[in-house]
Design brief:
single chain, Diaminopimelate Epimerase, Chain A, domain 1
Length: 276
């Protein structure tokens, strides 16, 4: 709600991937230029977030998610943002539990689940292809796919804790093989060289944020499908975000990956008022 005293916002997290979100019934897109989005996403002088969203009614049972990275660049899709948008849309009465989420990448069936969980049906996408990019120590291979939203690169590694996500992620994000827009870079643990139990850990360097984020929903889809394609895991699979929360991926493999569903957290942290 926009008033003379400020704008109500909602702070949400999807497995550690956090967002500032506005109800589009009371917020206008034209009031949010790049500089203002950057300011509200700043972690010292603003609310702090990986992304900024406005949720707009889009007819019966549908909501449009307008999504921006923290640098103010508009992005077509974000899996964790979609899960948070589904939960908040239901909470605010914008849509029922089962709804259609409209994004710049298309329209997706989504639904709220018990507690703070939601799930998202992503479109079919082409199977991953192996990239001819020189590896560094600890890397086993690099694969690429567009699993909805930004393009995703998957790097299978020996030890997820030894990865230099900031520097190696940035190097690959701007690699000529992903020009001109670049890609999100997802590092995922090789199951055969992992002594842990439970969901398989992954880490993400996210374009637009230009650093490591605590979770990436569509990145989790890419990691799970890439590992399943090369025979390292079976689907459905659970992956562990850097934020410490699991994401569940199910899909059917083939030349086209079909029946893709992502389930994860969409937790409301706080509601507040922006004074500027």
């Amino acid at each position: 709600m926009s008033t003379t005293t400020g704008t109500i916002f909602y702070k949400m997290t999807g497995s550690g991937n956090d967002f500032v979100m506005l109800d589009g019934r009371n917020a206008r897109l034209e009031d949010w230029p790049v500089e203002r989005i950057q300011a509200v996403c700043d972690r010292r002088f603003g609310v702090g977030a990986d992304g900024f969203l406005i949720l707009q009614p889009e007819g019966a049972g549908a909501v449009r998610m307008v999504f921006f990275n923290s640098d103010g660049s508009r992005a077509p899709m974000c899996g964790n943002a979609a899960l948070c948008s589904t939960r908040l849309s239901f909470r605010l009465g914008l849509a029922p539990e089962g709804m259609t989420l409209v994004t710049d990448s298309g329209a997706f069936p989504t639904r709220s689940l018990d507690g703070v969980m939601a799930e998202l049906n992503l479109p079919d996408f082409d199977a991953h292809k192996k990239m001819d990019i020189p590896l560094v120590a600890g890397e086993q291979g690099i694969w690429f796919a567009n699993a909805g939203g930004p393009p995703h690169t998957v790097v299978v590694v020996d030890d997820i804790e030894k990865v230099d996500v900031q520097n190696r992620g940035r190097e690959l994000r701007f690699h000529a093989g992903f020009a001109p827009k670049g890609a999100n870079i997802n590092f995922v643990q090789d199951p055969a060289k992992w002594s842990g139990k439970g969901p398989l850990p992954m880490r993400t360097y996210e374009r637009g944020v230009e650093g490591e984020t605590l979770a990436c929903g569509t990145g989790a889809v890419s990691c799970a499908v890439a590992l399943a394609t090369i025979g390292r895991i079976d689907l459905p699979a659970r992956l562990l975000s850097r934020g410490g929360f699991p994401l569940t991926v199910r899909a059917t493999l083939g030349p086209k990956v079909t029946g893709v569903w992502l389930a994860g957290e969409g937790r409301l942290i706080a509601r507040g008022v922006l004074e500027a």
